[in-house]
Specification:
93 residues, alpha+beta, 1 helix, 26% strand
Length: 93
């Protein structure tokens, strides 16, 4: 019985140490992954869509931003000059 009590105590201590290690690693690493409010990607000042298009959603990457239109097209623009880089037509199923 004494041996079993020692094993349970060691197991409990190792589980607590493992959990504390995982929590510490998450706290240390997450701020490096999530972009802080002090360093946001700037939004374009103005977006000019082709005639007849209306925006449904907006997303952006490092050097581009994209507008998904209500006409089922994805319009990808360069961040530098705002010129249209690519148009992708979304096909219905």
């Amino acid at each position: 019985m004494r041996f079993l009590r020692i094993l349970v105590t060691i197991l409990t201590a190792s589980m607590i140490a493992g959990l504390v290690t995982i929590i510490i690693l998450i706290v240390i690493r997450v701020p490096n992954v999530i972009r802080t409010v002090d360093d946001p990607i700037p939004l374009p000042a103005e977006i000019t869509l082709p005639d007849g298009s209306s925006a449904a959603t907006f997303t952006q990457g490092g050097d581009w931003y994209a507008i998904i239109t209500t006409e089922n097209e994805i319009l990808i623009f360069n961040r530098d000059g705002g010129e249209l880089r690519q148009t992708i037509k979304i096909q219905p199923r």
